[in-house]
Amino acid sequence: xxxxxxxxxxxxxxxxxxxxxxxxxxxxxxxxxxxxxxxxxxxxxxxxxxxxxxxxxxxxxxxxxxxxxxxxxxxxxxxxxxxxxxxxxxxxxxxxxxxxxxxxxxxxxxxxxxxxxxxxxxxxxxxxxxxxxxxxxxxxxxxxxxxxxx
Length: 150
Known about the structure:
Strand content: 15-25%
Number of domains: 1
Low-confidence stretches: none
Number of helices: 6
Mean pLDDT: 95
Number of strands: 5
Structural class: alpha/beta
Order of helices and strands: EHEHHEHEHEH
CATH architecture: 3-Layer(aba) Sandwich
Radius of gyration: 16 Å
Largest sheet: 5 strands, parallel
Distance between the termini: 20 Å
């Protein structure tokens, strides 16, 4: 089986690259997907494709609707959804992705520092695993796929 893993969440650190490298080093049969992580194009796609908006609300609305085409399809096709919460910015979109994945019955691994545990208690409550490092996510997937402990 080839596992589809959707990597949702903050875009300001290298957590995705660490997970990808770890999964590749373990030679696990996975396909990784994620939202568009280029912040500028994600924010500007609506204006660029469908025409400029004067009001920020409508600019964000168009962009979010276009981005949701990718996000919804990738979450729906995922076997596992990893949701990373960083400490620098509020990732409301990541919380929404976690809720959407939970509503679909997807397996969810949340990834965040211990300092965010209280703030994310409801999101963690819907998760099937809560990790603090990308390496733990890799170890979870090694166990889930191969049934062996690192």
